[in-house]
Amino acid sequence: MRSADESKTKRARNLRSELTNAEGTLWYRLRARRLNGYKFVRQEPIGPYTVDFVCRECRLIIEVDGGQHADSPQDAVRDKWLTDSNYRILRFWNNDVASNLAGVLETIVTALAEAPPHPDRI
Length: 122
Prior knowledge:
Blueprint: H1 2-16, H2 21-30, E1 41-46, E2 49-55, E3 60-65, H3 73-84, E4 88-93, H4 94-99, H5 101-113
Parallel strand pairs: 3-4
Antiparallel strand pairs: 1-2, 2-3
């Protein structure tokens, strides 16, 4: 089992070094607790999947997608697994991040404010 975990970690490291322009733009605003003090991590393995960004404390996942994700059955399966694991998911298109970053950030801030407490803290 250890080799599977190492494989996921290696994949996440590779993805961190290959952010898309939209992911890089959003990461600049999320990193170092710049968004209302919430901590996000990027390209984080969660179960069998790697998510773009996650605030672990609020169990909020943010995905930034290109056109290849339109109506993707794989994304639906992935989202179901993640929501069944108590995560909420926000998806934004690359062009939303590029053309309406303020609106994207406002949506994220609203979702963070509505976040339920982490299950480990109940």
